[in-house]
């Protein structure tokens, strides 16, 4: 359904980026097919594969990628996310990548009363062509981040995660023998189950007790400052965002146009920022519409800091008391949506994209999410994760209140699904942490020494 000339760039022998052949590398930043630019001061940079922030001193902002090719094109011969490699900040391909899937469901359209409802499904659902082994959209970012780093880099990548990102990087690093330290709260370990045992280049540290994603980030930042380690960078990493943005590229390719509405549940909002940035690129292309998708983003009650900030018309994130925040996080079903310090106020962050897209924040409680999850599985025959269920629950509520025009093109992003299905199809191996620390040990020097010692 996509415009034929999207494909024709490849089919007619349009100049291919010289960098991308499996296993090939090109490490000269000046010869890459993109540069980095700053959202605030407009500075441009050749990418060394690791840069996370603008070098100039000003308000916090996100760097963005600026690709040489302004026209959307796909490489049909490349696997997984590399189908969209012209709009990925990468210098090599690595094996084991799978991409997003977009489809339409008559049953879900009937259920919501939206004939132009499309589902972006990121997970494990072989019949639909969805093969993400860790059943989460975080696999899209893991492969992009690793492909951005030069092959000869010998540093140890540090990942902070609430669970899904940890699993995605653990798998991708293991398959490609890339040294990696993963820091995850203990409850995130349930996501660390794989079809194959992890390679010894991947080390896991878990934080016990009432630690949460923010504690994990704090510790990861300390470790990443040690010699031999380098930070993945979270939302500040352009590769993370552009990798996640392939979901919108895949949707535009499948639908033939940009959706009018985009529904997704958010913790940090990296996926939503990514979709917004990808939407801006597609608008510049000109063949997919001229209006940015309205971002209908959601959180899981009672932990809803972004919702509260947005609804109180603030440009700053509301202060969440640490103890209150942790108590609320314990109560939500969608643990991956538990970031206490999301990039809300940063230039180009969640507040900016909600404003620019005329979007809105929505909420669902656990009961609504469970109902939505059951409804989705009954309709589609596949399980979805709690975050996907939160997004679907908010879509159902909005649709029931007739808040969306009936003929609007709506994209529902199911960020994770098929976890249960995958465990039925495969005998999974659990990965265990090498070290565990509690809250009181996070900032101790001895803790850092022990972590560094894992790689000696
Ligand atoms: Zn700048």
pLDDT < 50 runs, ≥5 residues: 1-5, 7-25
Class per helix and strand makeup: alpha/beta
Query: What's the arrangement of strands in the largest beta sheet?
Result: 4-5-16-13-14-15
The distinct bound ligands, ions and cofactors come out as: zinc ion
Termini, distance in Å?
A: 53 Å
CATH architectural type of the largest domain? 3-Layer(aba) Sandwich
Overall shape: it is globular
Write down how many β-strands occur, each being a DSSP E stretch of 2 or more residues. 18
Q: CATH topology of the largest domain, what is it called?
A: Rossmann fold
Indicate the radius of gyration in whole angstroms. Answer: 21 Å
> Main β-sheet: number of strands, strand sense, barrel status?
6 strands, mixed
Helical percent range? 25-40%
Quote the average pLDDT.
92
Q: How many individual helices? A: 14
Count of spatially separate domains? 3
Please report which band the strand proportion falls in: under 5%, 5-15%, 15-25%, 25-35%, 35-45% or over 45%: 15-25%
CATH class of the largest domain: Alpha Beta
């Amino acid at each position: 359904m996509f415009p034929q000339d999207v494909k024709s760039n490849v089919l007619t022998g349009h100049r291919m980026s010289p960098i991308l052949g499996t296993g090939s590398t090109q490490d000269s930043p000046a010869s890459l097919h993109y540069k980095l630019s700053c959202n605030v001061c407009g500075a441009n940079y050749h990418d060394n594969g690791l840069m996370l922030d603008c070098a100039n001193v000003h308000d916090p902002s996100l760097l963005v990628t600026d690709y040489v090719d302004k026209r959307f094109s796909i490489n049909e011969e490349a696997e997984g996310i590399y189908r969209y490699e012209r709009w990925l900040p990468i210098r090599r391909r690595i094996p084991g990548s799978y991409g997003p899937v977009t489809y339409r469901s008559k049953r879900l359209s009937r259920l919501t009363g939206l004939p132009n409802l499309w589902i972006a499904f990121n997970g494990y659902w072989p019949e639909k062509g969805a093969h993400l082994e860790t059943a989460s959209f975080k696999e899209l970012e893991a492969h992009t981040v690793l492909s951005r780093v030069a092959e000869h880099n010998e540093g140890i990548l540090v990942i902070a995660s609430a669970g899904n990102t940890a699993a995605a990087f653990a798998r991708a690093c293991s398959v490609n023998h890339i040294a990696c330290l993963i820091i995850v709260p203990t409850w995130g370990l349930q996501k660390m189950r794989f079809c194959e045992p992890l390679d010894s280049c991947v080390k896991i540290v878990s934080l016990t007790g009432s630690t949460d994603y923010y504690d994990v980030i704090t510790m990861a930042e300390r470790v990443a400052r040690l010699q031999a380690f380098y930070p993945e960078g979270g939302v500040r990493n352009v590769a993370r965002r552009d990798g996640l943005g392939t979901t919108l590229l895949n949707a535009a390719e499948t639908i033939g146009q940009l959706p009018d509405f985009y529904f997704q549940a958010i913790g940090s909002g990296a996926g939503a920022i990514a979709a917004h940035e990808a939407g801006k690129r597609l608008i510049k292309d000109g063949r997919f519409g001229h209006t940015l998708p309205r971002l209908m983003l959601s959180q899981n009650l009672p932990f809803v800091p972004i919702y509260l900030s947005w609804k109180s018309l603030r440009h700053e994130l509301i202060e969440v008391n640490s103890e209150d925040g942790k108590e609320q996080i314990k109560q939500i079903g969608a643990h991956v949506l538990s970031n206490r310090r999301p990039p809300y106020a940063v230039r180009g962050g969640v507040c900016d994209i909600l404003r620019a897209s005329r979007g809105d924040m929505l909420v669902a409680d656990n009961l609504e999410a469970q109902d939505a999850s059951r409804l989705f599985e009954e309709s589609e025959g596949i399980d979805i994760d709690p975050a996907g269920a939160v997004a679907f629950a908010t879509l159902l509520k909005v649709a029931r209140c007739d808040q969306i025009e009936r003929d609007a093109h709506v994209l529902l992003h199911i960020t994770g699904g098929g976890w249960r299905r995958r465990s039925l199809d495969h005998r999974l191996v659990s990965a265990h942490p090498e070290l565990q620390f509690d809250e009181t040990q996070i900032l101790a020097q001895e803790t850092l020494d022990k972590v560094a010692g894992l790689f000696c």
